[in-house]
Amino acid sequence: xxxxxxxxxxxxxxxxxSNPLPTVVSAEHQMAFATFLHRVVGVGGTTIKDYLQRLxxxxxxxHSNFESAHKQFALDPAxxxxxxxxxxxxxxxxxxxxxxxxVDTVVRVxxxxxxxxxxxxAIVLAxxxxxxxxxxxxxKRSRAVGQEGDRPLRWADIRTVNVDGVRGYEVTVRKEKTAxxxxxxxxxxxxxPAQPGMPCPxxxxxxxxxxxxxRRDAPLFPFTRDTDLxxxxxxxxxxxxxxxxxxxxxxxxxxxxxxxxxxxxxxRAGNWASNKTADKYVRNSKxxxxxxxxxxxxxxxxxxxQPKSRGRRxxxxxxxxxxxxxxxxxxxDGKTDMLLVRSTAGRWKGYFYDPATGxxxxxxRARKPAVLADFEPFLHTEIEYMLRHTRPKQTAVIGQMxxxxxxxxxxxxxxxxxxxxxxxxxxxxxxxxxxxxxxxxGGD
Length: 444
Fold this sequence. Notes:
Elements: H1 2-11, H2 27-41, H3 45-62, H4 66-72, H5 77-89, H6 103-110, H7 117-129, H8 140-144, E1 158-163, E2 166-171, E3 189-191, H9 201-212, H10 226-235, H11 246-258, H12 263-270, H13 275-280, H14 286-298, H15 311-319, E4 328-330, E5 337-342, E6 347-353, E7 363-364, E8 371-373, E9 375-379, H16 383-389, E10 391-392, H17 399-413, E11 429-430
Helix pairs in contact: 2-3, 2-5, 3-4, 3-5, 7-9, 7-10, 7-11, 11-12
């Protein structure tokens, strides 16, 4: 990530030869770096947000002065708002495809004498617990920000239990990604001896304790990294499969779905924040397809239920696009940006901005090309027309457009209407050729 930041500094003329990397980055340069990542590096919105969020810590570690540098530099609130919008509206360039790990794969890994005992034990425990890799072993992301010792499992997080005369372990996530209090929000996971022929998580934990001791502050896997797990999994992957440490988490969700367990059980097993998130990890297995085909066969001869007519207004509401105030769009000619604001019920206004500066601009209205205006009104019946003739803004929101966007969000949070622009009607006049549109004008 600092590699891209260094290229950005060179691009803006920062004298790297005479000065080291800065410890503090202004809000203006934070936003400029986000734009650089999108236009020059060519990464998606979520990656841009992730890079900017890690920039303060990365610079602090670069200067070997974590405490002071981290206190001096934080992301500007307006930049955070813009990054959230970019994460939603700029699509990812390349989605990472991961296949689920099956029980057979875990068995093959556990029986492989060429792998280290630590790697085999980590894969067995990751599959049974459904933990994120960062909660079990050292991963690249935590090493990059100096937190490789914070999240991985320690012996203090493990407790011996006895269930109906059977000895097992209770394991608690050290730091949860989706918890409100970040730790202790989710119930501990219970590990009991496995069935015959299956890799046993209790045996794996016993072996780790015998090998390194069970000192409470010691990590469970002191020498194991995510790259070790990936190498072992890929070694035993089927042709064409791509297995990563996250494939263990995907595999557990898929196996639970194939067994017919309720989604609520799957959500709790993986400490997911919602059933919707848990469902994203499930891949359709052969068992799932078989149940689906059987269910389809059972519907043979049944009559399809006809939808009830609820009137024209209800139909328009049902098919209306899911838009929100603050949504940014761009005209195809690239000369004008537009910020959508919902006013009275069913009515919208699209305010115009100059893409190069972010300043408010004027443009001929679609229905009145002879009239320049700083906004376009839309009825609910005209929204689909507007969507067909514009596209989501792919570049960073800057200048006055960013300020207005932030004001819109603040008004929404306070359940207030976005304030109309002052002297709004004065922005309209006949386009007699004396003054061109500030954003380039022109229809679609």
